[in-house]
Design a protein that fits this description.
single chain, 31 helices, ARM-type_fold, ARM-like, mainly alpha, 807 residues, 3-stranded antiparallel beta sheet, 5-stranded antiparallel beta sheet
Length: 807
């Protein structure tokens, strides 16, 4: 029978890296990088090869194996696994780097900060205090070669090869036999007389002084160099001198040394050391202490090392949220630390926590998430947004807290590109319609309009056609002045999404009404927008072939590329309004537009006069075109809107560009149809009829599509059929043919037989008669107004521009 012996090295659950070993410290061990076979997690493996005739070194290595396996302390190298055979010893520890290599690498990258060095030395002294005071052990090998650094920048004490008991149970200190290590022995060990009186920690504290000198000044050439502190910080020099004093009796205990350095103004008395000490004891801290700590942590993270934030602060933050009920206070430091992670690490560590936070009912956490969404939105995929985040975010639209409603609206700027068809075009639009029509806070209505202007390009073509014009038109009738400005600029931000027919029939009439708005900021923006839209109409009128290029985005599918132009045009919105929103909410608790109506504008002759409406109660209107001194609240609103004037309108006003193809008649809705709707009060456009919007809270009750143009009466000639004095008749189709003004049904067209009459005389007489009639009406109206003003002047005060006072 054959017996096969198994190789324990091959069955060992860890394997050495094929790379050459790292810079191993002096001594019997060789340091290798390795990994765990099952998980691939990195480790460090110390290897000792048993050699014939080196029994003493073998015993030292086995003693170090045993010590490391039994000693457990946060500041001592952490033992994971080990292997002992007749040929070798393997000791597996956490992944570490020798301190000498670590300092050299950091020096090439710019050097270590004093904060990091203070905490590193604090850890080594604390480990020595544990060995001496708690375990009665003498390390006997404190030097640069015995200190290692993990991935979080934590310093660990290793090199336990020559450790012995302070009580003399195991005999005296073992012999080193390595000159590189013996140079750190204190001078009293050379004195063979044994007359020197010393404490059990005296030798290790001398070696600690040598370590401090090497950390700041480099390798120690000889013991005499310790007299010159060199680059050691001034706050540490007095305590350093105590360590390297000739009298071993005065060298302080490690615990006392820590206490001295932690005194006010001491080297280890800083925010970094305090943060680390708190994190080490966070499990036993009171909830109030944890809350205060996390609130102050965010301010300090910028000065902390990146590795420390990733590998020490982040796990504690995740644990505090998961098990410690830390709440919203962990969000700010959590997202700040998240900046140091790559995309894969962010998905694994941060995103699961964020998704869980959105389901929380804690208002403080919800508003913090909404405010800081910009920091993590790029890591969220569309299925996660639509199924796990957006359903919870929607509750914010219905929240009774205005701040949460406002932040929910603003968050849609970031969520909209990731929303699916149903959530974006149906659910979100329902909430926006309700907020814009019924929300009691003017700034929230304003931000809703702003947000819609920014995300308009992401809507599909049918939703854009149904929503944008109606929504911005409604905003222009809001009693809150910044909302009216936002409506005007919303038209400008989405100018490429409207057909020429909509520009002429729907948008320009609304904008023209704003030219007599009580607020100058609204009037200024309205004039700018009118000039830009007229410029587009004029350019197409001059060259109808530009129509295809101008309207290329009207029926285009939603795309992120289209959002770039709108976002740049709507840059006025978030900064201008958001910075003042909280102040405006406190200063202007504006009533909902359903309760407060806007000033009624005069009705042209021949149209039925609308029912009189109440004068708005808000004190944000001025009675004259000239700029006058207003109260403090009105001045704040005006300044907020005036800041939007700095945006670049030039690109829209210079919209005319060369285009490709020519289209025929681009006017689908005739003037007769539009006029018919205007004359009939039952078929008014949604620009005047908002009751259905406010009742239903839906975008569906918006514009009624104009009916097809009626055929012209027989014999009517269009403007394009006449020769207006040009050298030859024009054979190019007139793009305004379908927009020509239709005559009333009972009016007969003029005949050519009137051509020989004196048209100039008739026109002159007609103008004179009309002028006389108009003058008489003005005189009568002036007398009536003066009489009424004299009666009501004391009670009513001066009239406001654009308003009507009730009898």
């Amino acid at each position: 029978m054959w017996f096969f012996a198994r190789d324990p090295v091959r069955d060992f659950p860890f394997e050495l890296s094929p790379e050459p070993p790292e810079g191993s410290p002096p001594g019997p061990w060789t340091l290798h990088r390795g990994r765990k076979k099952a998980t691939g997690s990195p480790v460090s493996i110390f290897v000792y090869d048993v050699k014939p005739g080196a029994e003493e070194q073998t015993q030292v290595a086995k003693a170090a194996f045993k010590r490391l396996k039994t000693l457990r302390h946060p500041n001592i190298l952490a033992y994971i696994d080990g292997l002992e055979t007749d040929r070798c010893l393997h000791v597996v520890t956490e992944a570490v780097t020798p301190l000498g290599m670590y300092l050299k690498a950091r020096a090439e990258a710019g050097g270590l900060k004093e904060l990091e060095l203070s905490w590193g030395l604090h850890q080594i002294v604390k480990a020595l205090s544990f060995l001496v005071n708690d375990c009665s052990l003498i390390h006997n090998n404190v030097c640069m070669a015995a200190v290692f650094v993990d991935r979080a920048g934590e310093w660990k004490l290793g090199g336990l090869d020559y450790m012995y008991s302070a009580q003399g149970n195991g005999g005296g200190p073992p012999h080193k036999g390595i000159p590189e290590l013996e140079q750190y022995d204190p001078p009293e060990l050379v004195d063979s007389s044994g007359r020197a009186v010393r404490e059990k920690w005296s030798a290790d504290m001398w070696r600690l002084g040598c370590l401090i000198w090497e950390v700041f000044n480099g390798p120690l050439p000889r013991a005499a160099a310790l007299r010159n502190p060199g680059k050691i910080p001034k706050s540490l020099v007095p305590h350093y001198c105590e360590l390297v004093g000739a009298n071993p009796k005065v060298r302080p205990n490690p615990a006392r040394f820590l206490q001295n350095c932690r005194a006010p103004g001491g080297f280890m008395n800083n925010r970094f050391v305090e943060t680390n000490l708190f994190l080490e004891e966070i499990q036993i801290k009171e909830p109030a202490e944890k809350q205060k700590f996390f609130q102050e942590l965010s301010k300090s993270l910028d000065s902390f090392p990146e590795d420390f934030c990733r590998h020490k602060v982040l796990p504690q933050l995740l644990t505090a949220f998961e098990f410690g009920n830390a709440g919203a206070v962990v969000l700010t430091p959590l997202f700040k630390v998240g900046k140091f992670l790559n995309a894969e690490e962010y998905q694994q560590k941060i995103i699961p926590v964020v998704v869980k936070m959105f389901s929380s009912t804690d208002r403080a956490m919800r508003i913090r998430l909404l405010q800081q969404m910009e920091q993590f939105i790029q890591y969220l995929d569309e299925p996660t947004v639509n199924t796990q985040i957006f359903p919870h975010v929607m509750h914010g639209f219905l929240d009774t807290n205005p701040a949460i409603r406002e932040q929910t609206v603003k968050s849609m700027l970031l969520l909209a590109p990731k929303l699916n068809e149903a959530n974006l075009n149906v659910e979100l639009m329902k909430h926006f319609a309700r907020l814009q029509a019924k929300d009691e806070q003017g700034p929230i209505r304003c931000n809703t309009t702003v947000c819609l202007g920014k995300i308009g390009s992401y809507l599909n073509a049918s939703t854009r056609h149904r929503v944008l014009t109606s929504a911005f038109s409604r905003a222009t009738k809001d009693p809150f002045a910044p909302s009216r400005v936002a409506g005007v600029l919303g038209f400008a931000a989405t100018h490429n999404l409207y057909s020429m027919n909509d520009c002429a029939h729907k948008i320009l009439p609304v904008l023209c009404g704003l030219t007599v708005d009580p607020e100058k900021s609204v009037r200024d923006q309205a004039f700018k927008a009118i000039r830009s839209f007229l410029s587009k109409l004029e350019s197409v009128s001059e060259d109808p072939s530009q129509l295809a290029e101008v309207e290329k985005d009207v029926h285009a599918a939603s795309s992120p590329g289209m959002g770039g132009a709108a976002a740049s045009w709507a840059g006025w919105a978030v900064t201008g309004v958001s910075s003042l929103t909280s102040k405006l909410i406190r200063a202007h608790p504006t009533a909902a537009p359903a309760e407060t109506n806007v000033p009624q504008r005069p009705t042209p002759e021949g149209l039925p006069a609308p029912a009189p409406t109440p004068v708005p109660a808000t004190p944000t209107t001025s009675g004259q075109w000239e700029t006058q001194e207003e109260d403090k609240d009105t001045a704040e609103d005006s300044s907020a809107a005036d800041r939007w004037d700095d945006e670049d309108w030039g690109s829209l006003e210079q919209e005319a560009e060369p285009v490709l193809a020519q289209q025929d008649d681009w006017s689908t809705g005739g003037q007769a149809s539009h006029a018919g709707q205007t004359n009939n009060p039952d078929h008014r456009s949604s620009e005047l009829d908002w009751s259905s919007w406010e009742a239903e809270g839906s975008w569906e009750q918006g514009w009624q599509e104009p009916s097809p143009p009626e055929p012209p009466p027989e014999g009517t000639r269009l403007a394009s059929e006449y020769n207006w004095g040009g050298p030859e008749p024009s054979d190019k189709g007139d793009p305004f043919a379908a927009l020509s003004v239709r005559r009333e049904a009972g009016t007969q067209p003029r005949r050519d037989s009137w051509g020989d009459d004196n048209w100039e005389g008739l026109e002159t007489e007609s103008r004179q008669a009309k002028a006389e009639l108009a003058r008489k009406k003005r005189e009568e109206r002036r007398r009536e107004m003066e009489a009424k003003r004299a009666e009501k002047k004391a009670a009513k005060g001066p009239m406001k521009l654009g308003t009507r006072k009730l009898d």
